[in-house]
Amino acid sequence: ALGKGVDMHKQLEQLLKGGVCEDARLKAVTIHYATVFEGQVLAEMPLTYKGREYRLDVCVFQEGGINIIDLKTDATREQRAKHQRQLNVYAAALQALYPRHTIHKYIWWYEDKELEEV
What we know:
- This protein has about 120 residues and is an alpha+beta fold.
- It has helices spanning about 1-15, 25-30, 80-95, and strands spanning about 40-50, 50-60, 65-70, 100-110, 115.
- The protein contains three helices and five strands, in the order H-H-E-E-E-H-E-E.
- The two termini are about 25 Å apart.
């Protein structure tokens, strides 16, 4: 599962930079939820908060807002609470850095081709 996740993250980063992506699921989600991905897109964005290092899968900076997208390749929805806590930490860190921005958090359920705002 870890290898699949690493591969998907690499393909996603390439796709978001305007490159070629062979994964139909990744392409389908970025097209279907295009407004979420409009703006300055940073993939694998490093972030330090309260002395800890984090790496955000996708962070999209839009006018007045920031979208955090966490790609889950092998996670089940039963793990939603765990992933929400992770996204809450990311959101708190970004809110501290960008207090005037609205933060939106999404879990990207790869297998379901769905982007869920949490």
